[in-house]
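Narrative of activities, Objective 1.

The group set out to show that a structural description can be obtained from nothing but a protein's sequence at a throughput compatible with the screening campaign. Below is one input-output pair from the validation batch, recorded exactly as produced.
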Amino acid sequence: MNTIKMLNPETNEVSNVPAVQTTDYLVTGWIIAEDNDKPAELYHEEDVDANDAIDRDFAAAVFEDEKEEVPAHTKENIVQALLDNNILNAAVAHLGDLQTADELAAGVTSHNNGAGFSAAYARTGRRLWQWVTGKDAKSMEERWDKKCLSHTRANAAFQRQVRNYDFNTAVELARYVCSFHWRQLSHILEPDFAGMDLPKVDEKKRNNFVPSKWLDITGAKVLTIKGNGTQILWDSRKIWLPSSQFKNANGKMSIPMWLAQKNDMI
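Output recorded for this entry:
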């Protein structure tokens, strides 16, 4: 059996200890005698360097004091959040969505449920809601493009409401309405709430104009010009045509192809 010579430093007692019991003796204060054939360090287990593992665990840990706190649900904090136009868009959409279908359709607040726009802002709120959602309040279908309340056409669209409330912009009007309903907007204070990023200008429409094809009617006889019409004799038929649709350049007459087709001239 493999043994290790060990020394009790307090009593100077020396004993040959089985190798498997070395740790037990070391714990009680014994030491490995210096005259062993092998160095003492060979009988100790190798220390494990856990620094890397500790560093990884520490980096991945989430401490309570590091979590982003949600601001208190106060009117002041809601008003501050509404300074972000994307959040303002979302707040208007949220309040309108809380209205019942019949309230939206009629532009009134008839249910005393504490949800959505109050009666004092029912029509104004509905118009703001339609602007940001693009929905028709009566059919609930998306009929128009969704638009930001800072859209280039917003101030003109809400000109009457802005003027009546003595504001300068549609954004100021919307903030005023949403601030009145601040109790229903606690969700906009969440740190990860992003709001609705909506277009601020109209998308440029592609020009799909296709030039009209023209039919040469040189040889037709002009019979009468009266008011905005011109009567011609074409293939033994008398035909009235809009004078504005005639081209007469150097004696060459022509009309749009669609007009010729309409009058069975081709």
